[in-house]
Specification:
This protein is an alpha/beta fold. A 7-stranded mixed sheet has the order 12-11-10-9-13-14-17, with helices on both faces. Helix content is about 30%, strand content about 30%. Helix 4 links the parallel strand 9 and strand 10. Bound molecules: FE2/S2 (inorganic) cluster (FES).
Length: about 280
């Protein structure tokens, strides 16, 4: 059993859950995810790691209560336990293979949409700890939905908060801010990393294609086993079938067939909602 050390309400229906999981925390790398089972009757929920502390042995997850199992997760409180907590799963972010010297030569732009802002955090933290300054755009529907702003402010990054309704920060979607930074502020990047709803990642990729900007996205399709056995998480990358749980979850965004991925999500959306998978993508 895995004990919940902390639970914080970050925004309406969005919760940070800090879980005591020393072995997962010790092995975790930016870009990886875990599969969580709240109790013996709950479904498996894949969640990208939002933060971890190797010394103390905890892992943070950000949960949007949208179906029975995510609601069960969100209903847990400090001191409660989770039945299962499997991970870290998936391949760490590509940049973790670069040396500190190589990283310092690179200019990164991170884009997080909605609760996708949370898994961007450990990536920016990783780079910040190595003296690599990044630009970070996080976008939300409105001011109420903004999360992780203070966390990013502690890192070595320039942070741009966007809201769709203009109630806070930059007035407009993240794609508009990308264009603004490149066209009006003269920014140049080697890599863009986008994490959030599938539709947002698709439009980020369409935007960055215009600038020939290499873009990595973190796909979060339906997952069952998380070990490459069931095929539930299959996606098409450059015309080839890949399993997001073992080949990803991060892929070259310009090679992802987003329309097919979204079609597969719609196909399972009703089942997913009824089974309690997290529907944030
Ligand atoms: Fe089963 Fe990826 S979740 S193959």
């Amino acid at each position: 059993m895995f004990k919940i050390l902390e639970k914080i309400n970050l925004a309406p229906n969005v919760f940070l859950v800090r879980v005591e999981a020393p072995r997962v925390a010790k092995a975790a790398q930016p870009g990886q995810f875990v599969i969580v089972i709240a109790d013996e009757r709950a479904e498996r929920v894949p969640l990208t790691i939002a933060n971890f502390d190797r010394e103390v042995g905890w892992v943070d997850l950000v949960v949007q209560a949208s179906g029975p199992s995510t609601k069960k997760l969100a209903a847990k409180n400090k001191g409660d336990e989770l039945k299962d907590f499997v991970g870290p799963l998936g391949v760490p972010s590509d940049f973790t293979e670069l040396s500190d010297e190589e990283l310092k030569e690179k200019k990164f732009l991170f884009v997080g949409g909605g609760i996708g802002a949370a898994p961007v955090y450990p990536q920016v933290r990783y780079l910040s700890e190595r003296g690599v300054h990044c630009d970070v755009i996080i976008g939300f529907k409105n001011k109420e939905a903004v999360i992780y702003e203070e966390n990013f402010k502690e890192l070595d990054c320039d942070l741009y908060v966007c809201t769709d309704d203009g109630s806070y920060g930059f007035d407009g979607m993240v794609t508009k801010k990308i264009e603004d930074l490149i066209e009006n502020e003269g920014k140049e990047y080697d890599t863009c990393v986008a994490i959030g709803p599938m539709i947002m990642m698709k439009f980020v990729c369409l935007t960055t294609e215009k600038y020939d900007l290499h873009t990595i996205v973190s796909l979060n399709p339906i997952m069952v086993d998380g070990t490459g056995m069931c095929g539930a998480c299959r996606v098409s990358i450059d015309g080839e079938t890949k399993f997001a749980c073992v080949h990803g979850p991060e892929f070259d965004g310009h090679k992802v067939d987003f329309d097919l991925a979204m079609k597969r999500q719609r196909q399972y959306m009703n089942v997913e909602k009824s089974k309690g998978q997290q529907v944030w993508r």
